[in-house]
Amino acid sequence: MRRATWAGVLFLTLVGSFVLSIWLGSVELSPSEVIAALSGRGDPTNRLIVVQIRAPRAVLAILVGGGLALAGAVFQALLRNPLAEPYILGISGGAATGAVLALALGLVASHSWALPAASFAGAILAVVLVLRVALAADDRVDVRVLLLAGVVVGAFFAACIAFILSISDARTVRSAVLWMMGSLAGADWATVATVALYTIPAAVLLTGLARPLNLMAIGEDTAGYLGANVESVKRTAYVVASLLTAAGVAATGVIGFVGLIVPHGVRLVVGSDYRSLLPLSFLAGAVFLTLADVVARTVLSPTEIPIGVITAFVGVPLFLVLLRRSMGGRQR
Amino acid sequence: MWLARTRGHRDALASVLRLVRFVNSWSVAFLRLSTCALIVSHLACAGEAALPERDASQFPSDTSLEAFPVEVVDDSGVRHRFQAPPTRIVSLVPSATQTLLALGVGGRLVGRTDYDQLSELAALPSVGGGLQPNLEVLVSLEPDFVVRFEGESDQATADRLTDLGIPNFAIRPDGIDDVLSSIERLGLITNQRVAADALLEEIRGNLADVAARVEGRPRRRVVYLMGGEPPWVAGPGTYIDELMVSGGAVNVFDDLEGLYGPISLEELITREVDLVLVSDEGGSPDLIDMEHASIPSWVEVPGPGLGEAASLIARFIHPEAFP
Fold first, then answer.
1. Nearest CA of chain A to the CA of B127: how many Å?
2. Which of B23, B140, B260 would you mutate first to test chain A, the one with the most A CBs within 10 A?
3. ipTM associated with this complex
């Protein structure tokens, strides 16, 4: 199928997932009740549930899922490593360190914005550190050094977290664990607006890098001969994809798997032309996380399953099927 | 002893590795889930165990509303004003749930958490855990009063409840005084002051009785072990520490940073310990040559059972004082 067809299919699926997401939940609502609530009529409790709880959550799932998948696709292109995912360069570690520190210092109880702010700051610190380390080795960004720097910085932050938690009390450990599991449960419209402010411009910018990323897939030197400004593309892609990830992590904690599996899945279906891969990854990631969230909050209702569990449970079999199909296709 | 020590090291290492892997990898989602469930269920929400029998109907309801409107400050420092006693209550804090039952207002509860498994609550819809409850279920119950944990553990829920216009009352039952004060305030809010006073009297009576019995006896060195590997103990500032001290003991880990925390097994072995109180729920490391006693899990609910808990703990520490 052509790119436009896939985009259309995914977009319709996304709309469907969104509808599902505000219709289904722990509290059973009929479609007419949902519509009434959305149009500002009906029972005030239902209105609260649909407009203030489900809708912001669904939009956040779209933004974060899309953002993570897009960032994953960009990192895989940039690092030319199939294992790359949005957190590979230490962003989750930096964000978690910031979050855990804010929790341990007790800043969170007095200022509710302290947790996302601290985790965002931690993520940015990780980005800066990784870039500095990579540039210290060479004034051109060598993606292998970048990858190594990311893994090392990530390990350092992991040690910081383990240390802070080991000297913290039970409350801090508990909240840190809850945070690190990742959840969309805290979604409100203010969070959605903040994340959108990062995600939408970043997504537009990154999709714009599709052509140079295509060239770089052939090889950095070749891309240079063909007129791509390789250095600037690498740095822009790295920084913007990192910011995109950081915004998501700050809002929802560490949600794994979307950024790894969705781009690979999309690649298996549409091939590795980044002009299709990047936008379709965003759409597919949005669909994936929205549906995963529906499952996470309905299956064991009222208890919510951590969304990372669902993304892995659903993602792995799905990915294996895709992998098998595409391998089978190649052999024939 | 040697065996216990090696096991301790290995498991300490394993748990550090676990934490490290938390952060980096999605593949440990499982592990995260189980570890969290362990920590959360054990430390925050242990509440399912049967409490000693108590007949709430012995307390008449306060019929007059002359005290209202009342203003009560919660443990986050927020002043709440109640025009009338709340009629639709959800308590996210198991100890507060039990207090409300003991005050005779169990009938006003419209929801419970997964950790409240007392039979009289079984018919109520659950909002999931006490931390990060399912907001949408909570909202659908239309509560006019939600009791929640104070503190950074779950600030998101607190903020969301406030945003959604649901009165949420924060309590943090750390020490004995906190527990007594939360009983008093819940009595005030629910207009059950007579019942609250009787309950407080009973608890204070038990504490005084315990104090009189252990007075002048040598203080024994006691550890309260909550299980986990490395094991967690109760430190200063917790009601458990205070119950041990009032029961004629010295808390061996009165230098612990924070309320509850992990200690190394070596510390436990090398410090001078007369008695180890082991939480029934937690499971314990091998205490081969240490005197120990098993503590039923209702003791770990800082609510109406506090008086009985004081007597029980003192009885283990100084059995000779309870002939």
1. 6
2. B23
3. 0.74
Estimate the share of chain A in helix, then strand, then coil, as percent rounded to the nearest 5.
Answer: 80, 0, 20
B60 found inside a domain: no
Together in a domain, B199 and B271: no
Residue B248 shares a structural domain with residue B187 = no
Q: Does A172 touch chain B (CB under 8 A)?
A: yes
Shortest Cα distance from B16 to chain A (angstroms)?
6
Q: Which tokens sit at B265?
A: 């097994």
A53:B29 CB<8 A: no
Q: Give the C-alpha separation, A61 to A38, whole Å.
A: 19
Residue A314 contacts B where some CB pair is shorter than 8 Å: no
Write the CB contacts of B231 (distance below 8 Å, at least 6 apart in sequence): B225, B262, B263, B265, B268, B282, B284, B285
Average pLDDT of chain A, as a whole number: 87
Q: Which domains does chain A have, with CATH numbers?
A: 3-331 (1.10.3470.10)
Instruction: State the residue for tokens 């041990």.
Output: B244
pLDDT in tens, B125-158: 999 888 888 888 999 999 999 999 887 667 778 8
Flag whether pLDDT at B55 surpasses 60: no
Digit-coded pLDDT (tens) for B213-233: 999 999 999 999 887 777 888
When pLDDT is averaged across residues A150-176 and rounded to a whole number, the result is: 86
**Looking at beta carbons, which residues of chain B come within 8 Å of A112?**
155-156, 159
Nearest CA-CA partner of A282 in A258, A316, A306: A258
Would you mind telling me the total number of residues written for chain B in this entry?
Answer: 323
Q: Do B153 and A254 touch (CB under 8 A)?
A: no
Are both B220 and B200 inside the same structural domain? no
- Provide the domain count of chain B: 2
Any idea what the CATH number is for the domain that residue B231 is in?
A: 3.40.50.1980
What residues of chain A, 62 to 91, have a C-beta less than 8 Å from chain B?
Answer: 87
Q: Do B35 and A188 touch (CB under 8 A)?
A: no
Question: Is residue B134 situated within a structural domain?
Answer: yes
> Which structural domain, as residue segments, surrounds residue B263?
7-46+216-321
B196 and B81 part of one domain: yes
Out of B21, B136, B159, whose CB is closest to A49? B136
Taking an 8 Å cut-off on Cβ atoms, the answer to whether B128 and A304 are in contact is yes
Q: CA-to-CA distance for B161 and B148, rounded, in angstroms?
A: 10
Beta strand segments in A121-185, E: none
Among the listed residues A302, A320, A284, the one whose alpha carbon sits nearest the alpha carbon of residue A10: A284
CA dihedral (B297, B303, B308, B312) in degrees, to 10, reads 40
Q: Which A residues in the span 100-119 are in contact with B, Cβ-Cβ below 8 Å?
A: 103, 106, 108-109, 112, 115
Asked if B142's CB is within 8 angstroms of A309's CB, the reply is no
Of B185, B206, B227, the residue that ends a domain is B206
B200 and B231 belong to one structural domain? no
Q: How confident is the model at residue B20 (pLDDT cuts 50, 70, 90)?
A: very low
CA distances from B23 to A90, A113, A292, B29, B142 (A): 9, 21, 21, 10, 37
Query: A112 to chain B nearest CA, in Å?
Result: 7
Please indicate whether, in this complex, the C-beta atoms of A177 and B35 are within 8 angstroms of each other: yes
Instruction: Kindly state whether residues B267 and B199 are assigned to the same domain.
Output: no
Question: Do A169 and B26 count as a contact with CB atoms less than 8 A apart?
Answer: no
Q: What is the pLDDT of residues B172-208, one digit of tens each?
A: 889 999 999 999 999 999 999 999 999 999 999 999 9
Same domain for B181 and B269? no
This prediction has a pTM of 0.78
> Is residue B283 located within the same domain as residue B189?
no
Whether residue B61 is contained in a domain is answered as no
Last residue in a domain, options B150, B180, B206: B206
